[in-house]
Design brief:
InterPro entries: Glyco_trans_2-like, Nucleotide-diphossugar_trans. By secondary structure, the protein is of the alpha/beta class. The chain has eleven helices and nine strands. Strand 2, helix 2 and strand 3 form a beta-alpha-beta unit.
Length: 252
């Protein structure tokens, strides 16, 4: 029997895209999964769309109040029963072989965490607008401080080996903080050099003022890692250089 995979998804006003996401999960060649969707009080008909799918593996939880993506992910993590944790936001997509390939790769490499390539796509057409992000290096706590190579859509970890890791609800860079906390506990994560996912590049998520993004990243080091001001500024500068070079076509 294949190990259970718990898929963690926050949803909020995702009616425009959620059906594509659902179809990408239902099309997985690996069938032993549970999908824990925590809806963050959507104001559109996201919940109604999800409820149309009569599959017992899809477990929808509508939260009592809006608390942000990190909190919604945590609510799903609390209920997760699977050995493997995978993350899929409500507007992103997986290729049909995503879960099969990722779990096989973890077993083959005796890995605690793995990540793969993913396409960076236009939010409406889902056509690539940048070169695929490449999983081209082993990730460690040290190198993840300078640039966050791990994205929820393309990363999986093994709870039997490392336990569960939750997201800080007071950070706007909650993904990076969670990955750093995880990599404090394990020596490395392994790259799977194959494109298995599509990340939808939403205009409203990349148009935030640069100074606000940099401030949020600085707080990752200062508040959550407990670094000194000088050390926090050093890593923020490294992150900014790497990030803006990577996404220069968007921010120009």
């Amino acid at each position: 029997m294949k190990e259970l995979v718990s898929i963690i998804t926050p949803s909020y006003n995702s009616a425009e895209f959620i059906e594509e996401t659902i179809q990408s999960v239902l099309s997985q060649t690996y069938e032993n999964w549970e999908w824990l969707i925590s809806d963050d009080r959507s104001k559109d008909n996201t919940v109604e769309i999800i409820k149309k799918y009569n599959d017992p593996r899809i477990k929808l939880h509508v939260l009592e109040q809006n608390g942000g993506a990190g909190n919604a992910r945590n609510k799903s993590l609390e209920r997760a029963q699977g050995r493997y944790i995978a993350f899929l936001d409500s507007d992103d997509l997986w290729y049909p072989e995503y879960l099969e390939t990722m779990t096989d790769f973890m077993k083959k490499n005796n890995a605690e965490l793995v990540y793969c390539n993913y396409s960076r796509c236009d939010e409406h057409t889902m056509e690539p607008i940048l070169k695929d992000f490449e999983a081209d290096t082993i990730v460690t706590f040290s190198n993840l401080l300078k640039t966050c190579r791990l994205a929820p859509v393309s990363t999986m970890y093994d709870t039997k080996r490392v336990g569960k890791f939750f997201f800080p609800v007071k950070s706007k860079r909650e993904d990076h903080v969670m990955w750093l906390n995880l990599l404090k506990e394990i020596p490395k994560g392994y790259p799977l050099k194959k494109t298995l996912a599509k990340y939808r590049m939403r205009q409203n998520s990349v148009s935030r003022k640069k100074k606000n993004i940099i401030k949020d990243q600085y707080l990752v080091y200062k508040d959550f890692m407990g670094f000194s001001t000088l050390k926090s500024l050093y890593y923020t500068a490294n992150w900014a250089l790497n990030g803006f070079l990577k996404y220069s076509k968007i921010f120009n």
